[in-house]
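Meet our chain:
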Amino acid sequence: MRPQNRPRNRTNGSLVCGKEATSPRKIDRRVRHTRDVLGDALVILMHEKPFRAISVQDALERAHVSRSTFYTHFRDKDDLFLSDAEDFLEFMSTLLLRRGEVSTRIAPVQELFAHLAEWRPFHAALVASGKIHDFRELAQGHFARVIDQRLARLPSARALPASRRTAVAHAFAGALLSLVTWWIDHGMSAPPEQMDEIYHQMVWSGVRASAGRTLSPVSRSAIGRRI
C-alpha cells in the first residue's frame, strides 16, 4: 500500500522509525521490507473485511511471504498489527525529542495532523475493523510518556510538581486524541498549524492553572499511588 494510505515503516526520516526516541532501531533492510509488505497486506485486508475474519494465511498470500518467514517476526495477526502501530506511534510521539526542538510545543501536533490528512483511509480501516480502540490506547500511552518528558525539559513547566506533571501529561495525551477525532469527524477543514495552535494554547493554560495550585497532602498521596 502506498504511503498516503497508511504509515509506512520506513527509516528515511519522514515516516516511521524505530522504538528509541533518540536512536532509531536499526533493522536489516530485508527484514524491514518483509515487515512492510506484511503490514501493507494486513491494512489492505482491513479495508476489505472485519479484522476478526482475516487469517494469517490471507496476509501471507497478499504479501507473497512464506508462513515460516511470518512466524520468524510475528506471533499472530494481532502481533503484526500492534507492531506496525507501535512503530508509527513511537516515531510520531518522539519527533520533537529526536529533533531537539527548542520550542514550547509538547507534541508534534502540526506534523501529526498533516500526516493524518494523508492517513484517513487507514483510520477508516481501523474503525471498520474494530481496532481503533486498541490503537487509541497505544497512542495514549506513547504520547503521555513523551509529553511528560517534554514538560520536564521545558523551563515554563518547571513549577509543575513531578507527580502532577505525570497526571497532566496523561490528560493532555487524551485531549490530543480527542482533538484528532473531532478534526477527522469535521472533515479536517482546519489547517494542521491552526490545530497545533489551539492545542498548545489549551495546554499552557492548563499548565499555568495546575502549577499555580497547591495539592493537599491527601491529594498528593492519592496521585502518587495511582502513578
About this structure: The chain has two domains: 1-93, 102-227.
